[in-house]
């Protein structure tokens, strides 16, 4: 991981996941981690594939656990 990614990543992560120590990722970070668009993240939320958590009045995050579960489901099925 590049130095700039390391120093900036704390701004978008709100506590522990196995790889980064984050519980919640901002939508744009989750999209980047999965290699999909923000619109796809919202489609996955609507399909109950990912869990969206309100962080504040205007902010949302995707739980690290739901990202991990999505990856595990996709690895198991494909």
UniProtKB/TrEMBL annotation:
Matching Pfam families: HTH_17
Signal sequence region: none
GO MF assignments: DNA binding
All copies of domain Helix-turn-helix, residue ranges: 25-74
Annotated InterPro entries: HTH_17, SinI_DNA-bd
Annotated protein name in UniProt: Helix-turn-helix domain-containing protein
Organism: Allopusillimonas soli
């Amino acid at each position: 991981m590049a130095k700039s990614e390391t120093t900036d990543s704390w701004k978008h992560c709100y506590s522990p996941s196995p790889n980064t120590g984050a519980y919640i990722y901002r939508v744009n970070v989750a999209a980047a981690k999965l290699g999909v668009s923000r619109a796809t993240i919202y489609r996955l939320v609507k399909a109950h594939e990912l869990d969206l958590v309100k962080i504040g009045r205007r902010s949302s995050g995707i739980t690290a656990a739901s990202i991990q579960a999505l990856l595990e489901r996709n690895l198991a099925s494909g």
